[in-house]
Amino acid sequence: MPQHTRVVLPEDRYFDPYPPQKAIALQLYRLVKDLPLVCPHGHIDPRIFADPEYTFSNPAEMLITPDHYVFRMLYSQGIPLEHLGIPRRDGGAVERDPRKIWQLFAEHFYLFRATPTGMWWTHMLYSVFGVTQKLNGATAQAIYDQIMAQLALPEFRPRRLYERFNIEVLCTTDAATDRLEHHRAIRASGWPGRILPTLRLDGLANMYAPDWRQHIAALAEVSGREISSYRTFIQALEERRAFFKEMGAHATDHSPVMVHVPDLTEQEVERIFQRGLKGNVSTEEALLFTGHMILESARMSIEDGMVMQLHPGSYRNHNRWVYDTFGPDSGGDIPVQIEFTRALHTLLNRYGNDPRLTLIVFTLDESTYSRELAPLAGHYPALKLGPPWWFQDSVNGMLRYRQLTIDAAGFYNTVGFNDDTRSFPSIPARHDLWRRMEANWLAGLVVRGILDLDDAAEMIQDSAYRLAKRVYRFDF
After folding, report:
1. Residues 252, 199: contact at Cβ < 8 Å?
2. Superfamily of domain 19-55+157-471
3. How does pLDDT run across 11-57, given as a tens digit for each residue?
């Protein structure tokens, strides 16, 4: 087979082959393909926007080493993470030549065939960098040189790419103790790009984490107060929320492994908190505290208007050797089975009927969509369903998501799309895949007579743009 084959990206890719459905899907897709991108949840480092002259150093550092979607697949095939330049915690030797890292990745790019990562990468290389050859071992260095030449141009600095991608708003994810210095610099620069922080509470809420007391110490330092009781802890946290909101934040983020929201008295919480400060809390007590903090966060969200995002169900750092050697976010996070109906009962009965609360729930356990989450979202005014997350952010996952949720939750108890990425250049490709799959799903409903074309046209625009903007309250 030829080594230097050209990339082919048909306009009607990913659509159903049935001609009437494909034609309608293409018509719907064209309505939204150029709409602005609303990015309410992701993990882009704000420092790349703080310096107007920031330049990505090379393709490997830009696209491979920060993206666990990429290196987890190569690791699964026996490729050492050191060979991909992933830093070791002990400072041990890793590959530092970006050309060698890129070459190794390119030689194994075939591993991503038919995967969402492969789709994102092919689209990204073609549309962002103008790469028309398939990426493989033979083309690796020519493509590397092509990207390097472009990274030296002013048009490929992050702020210019933000404008080129037609991003309307992009939210980062920041620890509650972060001083948001990069966000301050962005604001002070006068650049009109809308880069907003999101307050992540995991470090302070997940008492079962071994470094929880270090996060409490960091909160004490940044708040300038001694945290010796649960009440002073809550006061400091409320101050951090106010600071984040002042800096433009619209949402908080919570990512516990499991969800169990207990109904504890303040005295019970204080006793657990004191044991936590002393470092002698039990696992059961720690999990109770973490669940209680979800309840407290809902209360605070009602008071300050911030949208609450809940991302449970990932067993973080499942591969202990990889975690011990390379640290978190190294590709070793694995989904677990989860339950919501009983777990959220206390929270929803206390706050779920209050229209001031918006609680967006994501899951990695798709079985919960039709069994629990869709019926819950189809009843409680406060609860909305986040888009397919992580391992389900794919052609197949998006179709399953709609099939499993539409009956009980409807369409308007969902919130559109977020890219949830660490790879900035992949953002347009990820949104494009969502828009295509939504167009295809809606076209299928039209050809079966479930929707008419006018309703489908309204829904695709809501899905691609308006829902996220409305639910995350970006209009104000």
Report:
1. yes
2. Metal-dependent hydrolases (3.20.20.140)
3. 999 999 999 999 999 999 999 999 999 999 999 999 999 999 999 99
